[in-house]
């Protein structure tokens, strides 16, 4: 008769759970199961504890990202975005990520970097005209090389809807 690969373990949280011990050598399974029960909590309790911690971590990360975005807004004189209660924080972060990335890539990392004044004129100035939250959300994954064309044509689209690069 083979030694069982699963054991019913009573964990220190008080729950009993069938646990797979097939990766533990047969001669050590009983001792391993005893150690797990004395020192660990069950998967259900572990998941519950970590879910709470994960939500707090995500909320903290979101708050920090939004604070960075609002600071970027103030530093570069960007108007607040307009939209629903859910859209505004999302769009604010999306605009920050797109424009800060473009600023870094186009003024520092490019083969022929732009001056800050050129970046201001060619990208930030037209970007200030775009306040609709949905626009920033829709375009949050654009490549930094396309940011200038994107923001400059968005202003044109608002002035003359229907104008596209397609002549037909």
From TrEMBL:
Superkingdom of source: Bacteria
Protein name per its UniProtKB record: Uncharacterized protein
Origin species: Pseudarthrobacter psychrotolerans
């Amino acid at each position: 008769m083979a030694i069982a690969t699963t054991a019913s373990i009573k964990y220190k949280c008080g729950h009993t759970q069938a646990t797979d011990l097939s990766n533990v050598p047969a001669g050590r399974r009983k001792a391993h199961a005893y150690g797990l029960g004395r020192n660990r909590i069950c998967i259900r309790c572990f998941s519950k504890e970590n879910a709470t911690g994960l939500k707090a971590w995500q909320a903290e990360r979101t708050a920090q990202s939004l604070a960075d975005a609002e600071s970027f807004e103030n530093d570069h004189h960007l108007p607040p975005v307009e939209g629903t209660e859910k859209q505004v924080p999302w769009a604010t972060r999306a605009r920050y990520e797109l424009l800060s990335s473009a600023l870094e890539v186009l003024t520092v990392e490019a083969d022929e970097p732009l001056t800050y004044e050129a970046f201001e004129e060619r990208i930030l100035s037209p970007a200030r005209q775009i306040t609709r939250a949905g626009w920033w959300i829709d375009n949050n994954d654009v490549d930094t090389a396309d940011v200038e064309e994107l923001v400059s044509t968005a202003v044109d689209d608002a002035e003359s809807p229907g104008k596209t690069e397609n002549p037909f």
